[in-house]
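Bumping my old thread because nobody answered last time. Still need a sequence for this structure:
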């Protein structure tokens, strides 16, 4: 079988497969075709790919391959019957794209639907690998915009106190943000709606901000649940009070398949000190700060800098591509045998864990979204929005 790697659209600097993965794919019996300049923006040259054994080709030739690897979802006019597409489709936010795949009889594997609680899925989890980098970069962005030093410094001219950083949310991105800020020398406070996260926060150097009435607001998939308006207000009030005296605030709260929850209302921003920096990691899905402008960095009337940079992993394109490629290579290698695609009915990665399993999530399948012109029967939650 032939596997095609595409150049991503404008605004996306990553590439789905890097040269180091080509030989691994070839060992599985795949021929690898890479669109010309696909890796250019992430510093992987065509010669790097050809030296690894890939064929450099036009977009049309790459699209003609039986398996297509990309980060972003393809445009509907590029879909064709019989295509096996592996990408991040974000199906709950873009159901119209899933309909296009169904109408075109495309077999779609959406890597953001990985059943992340399965131990076997961890090496394929693109969400975690990219969130890790995003959390790291968010703190660096905050440090670059704030007008003061981060660590405590003792000099002949006086002592500089360490900066105070607040991280809102302690999932993969949040924990990396806490660890990064701590390594830079900041005093780090962090919050989460899961009370059990306190130990994780403290293990990477953070101080847990506890809210009265807190419990483990986590769904069966391992993602944060939507909260009641009353509890959201209580959390916002408590955390924003701590943030009001902070130098850098990083927001990481994301609910799977839904708009990002507001964790910093406009009224809270007005109480933050001049020179404070808010880095909103979810600007592309509505933003956690009510005043975030997606893709923009601006200063409010009271001197707060709000950073709405989208696609933070894409700003670290070389490393992000390498990790993404490792995830995809591990996944596709698990369903390829002697150069042929094998879709096994008992593969939990593809279909989700069966009913009765500790990892079963009602209405949620795995990465296989649609095949043979219809949505997979396990994807009943997604079917409800199509």
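Sorry it took so long. Here it is:
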């Amino acid at each position: 079988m032939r596997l095609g790697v595409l150049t991503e659209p404008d605004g996306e600097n990553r590439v789905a497969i890097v040269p180091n993965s080509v030989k691994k794919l070839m060992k599985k019996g795949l021929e690898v075709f890479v669109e010309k300049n696909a890796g250019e923006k992430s510093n992987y040259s065509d010669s790097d790919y050809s030296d690894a054994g890939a064929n450099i080709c036009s977009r049309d030739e790459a699209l003609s391959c039986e398996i297509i690897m990309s980060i972003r979802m393809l445009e509907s006019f590029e879909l064709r019957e019989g295509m096996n597409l592996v990408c991040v489709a974000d199906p709950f936010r873009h159901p119209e794209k899933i309909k296009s795949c169904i109408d075109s009889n495309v077999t779609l594997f959406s890597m953001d639907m990985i059943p992340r609680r399965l131990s076997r899925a961890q090496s394929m989890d693109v969400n975690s690998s990219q969130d890790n980098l995003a959390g790291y970069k968010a703190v660096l962005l905050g440090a670059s915009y704030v007008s003061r030093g981060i660590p405590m410094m003792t000099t002949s001219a006086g002592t500089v106190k360490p900066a105070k950083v607040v991280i809102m949310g302690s999932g993969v991105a949040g924990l990396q943000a806490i660890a990064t800020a701590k390594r830079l020398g900041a005093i780090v406070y962090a919050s989460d709606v899961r009370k059990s996260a306190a130990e994780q926060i403290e293990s990477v150097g953070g101080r847990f901000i506890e809210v009265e009435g807190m419990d483990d607001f986590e769904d069966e998939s391992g993602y944060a649940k939507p909260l009641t308006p009353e509890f959201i207000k209580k959390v916002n009030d408590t955390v924003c009070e701590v943030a009001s005296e902070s130098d850098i605030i990083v927001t990481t709260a994301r609910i799977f398949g839904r708009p990002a929850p507001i964790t910093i209302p406009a009224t809270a921003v007005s109480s933050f000190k001049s020179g404070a920096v808010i880095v909103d990691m979810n600007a592309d899905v509505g933003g956690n700060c009510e005043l975030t402008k997606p893709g923009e960095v601006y200063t409010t009337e009271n001197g707060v800098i709000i950073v709405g940079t989208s696609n933070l992993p894409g700003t670290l394109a070389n490393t992000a591509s390498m990790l993404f490629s490792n995830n995809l290579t591990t996944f596709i290698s698990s369903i390829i045998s002697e150069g042929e695609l094998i879709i096994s009915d008992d593969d939990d990665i593809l279909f989700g864990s069966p009913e009765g399993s500790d990892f079963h999530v009602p209405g949620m399948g795995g990465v296989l979204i649609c095949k043979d012109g219809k949505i997979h029967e396990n994807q009943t939650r997604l079917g409800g929005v199509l």
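The domain at 131-310 is CATH 3.40.50.720 (Rossmann fold). Let me know if any region looks off to you.
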